[in-house]
Amino acid sequence: MAKFWVCAAGAGLFLAFLVLHSRFCGCPVLRNFAFQISWRTEKILYRLDVGWPKRSEYFTGATFCVAVDSLNGLVYVAQRGDNIPKVLVFTEDGYFLRSWNYTVDTPHGIFAASTLHEQSVWITDVGSGSYGHTVKKYNSFGDLVQVLGTPGKKGTGLNPLQFDNPAELYVEDTGDIYLVDGDGGLNNRLIKLSQDFMILWLHGENGTGPAKFNIPHSVTVDSAGRVWVADRGNKRIQVFDKDTGEWLGAWNNCFTEEGPSSVRFTPDGKYLIVAQLNLSRLLVVAAPPVGSIGDCSVISTIQLADQVLPHLLEVDRKTGAIYVAEIGAKQVQKYAPLNSSVSSFGS
Asked: Is the pTM of this model over 0.70?
């Protein structure tokens, strides 16, 4: 017996075709088929911007991370490789501006934290060389401004602060910093730092229980004051209060196949965009209301080609566009929202 999967919208037309066919040919066609009709529909919220960047030959290494300075319309891409520029700077329209390579060993995560008075780029460096195991702040042209950690030396210390494979960071407009430290290294911890780099609170222990981690890989903050961490090895997202560090809950029902590798909210706060590395997939997840964590609810998916491997992503806070750093395809791709419902910037 032949078996077909038919979407709800097309089932009626397909059935009508088979009925007409059977009448004209005189054969009982319908008895030879079994139908499984899926009534599930997904919202299509984004489209691939095939014109970004204008020229892709600037990607000469493995593109591990991407950051967006929505205030100045700039996109930063950090890549790995020998004898190549480690940081590329594009416009949001895809035009290449410049590159730099100073004091960057092996970039893992990147974040643009610009204000009206300063353009800043933060990079987590997991290299084993003289610049590795640090979190560094640069200006837009690659001048080193600040170094956190002990350059070239991994560790677990808090005074002075040490890192081992720091994965990513998120910087609020207030200057407060949220760091996930431990992309397979000694540490599995989430740290909040003040704008003058004092530790405000910390969760740090390997494990599967609440506020414990197994490869905390990405971190972001929502408008309700909640910190969201992609606890990749534990196949879940954990949520904390940004002021107190209190554990608020976790999502794991969406990640039975693979854990999340990156998390970012849309500008309106309605959706959380999640990357799943080895599935080469992006999830658009409904954000929970204030005061509730609930369960993960997928609104839409963006399935990428096999072995594209989306590592980390960023969402433009003005336009709502998603930029995806793909270590398998060695490129960054841009997905533009189809309508204003996912691109309006509330503040």
From this structure: yes
Q: What is the per-residue DSSP string for 18-45? A: HHHHHHHH-S-GGGGEEEEEE-------
Nearest to 273 by CA among 325, 331, 202: 325
Rounded to an integer, what is the distance from CA 284 to the centroid of its chain?
11
Over residues 126-141, the pLDDT tens digits come to 998 999 999 999 999 9
CA distance 255 to 296: 9
In whole angstroms, how far apart are CA 233 and each of 192, 208, 215, 245, 261?
21, 9, 5, 21, 9
Instruction: Render 238-295 in DSSP notation, one character per residue.
Output: EEEETTT--EEEEE-TT-SSS--SEEEE-TTSSEEEEEETTTTEEEEEEPPPTT----
Structure tokens at 12: 């009626």
Beta strands in 149-235 (DSSP E): 166-171, 177-181, 189-193, 199-204, 216-221, 226-231
51 or 19: which leads in pLDDT: 51
3-class DSSP state for residue 61? coil
Distance CA(91)–CA(218), nearest Å, equals: 24
Q: Is the CB of residue 190 less than 8 Å from the CB of residue 204?
A: yes
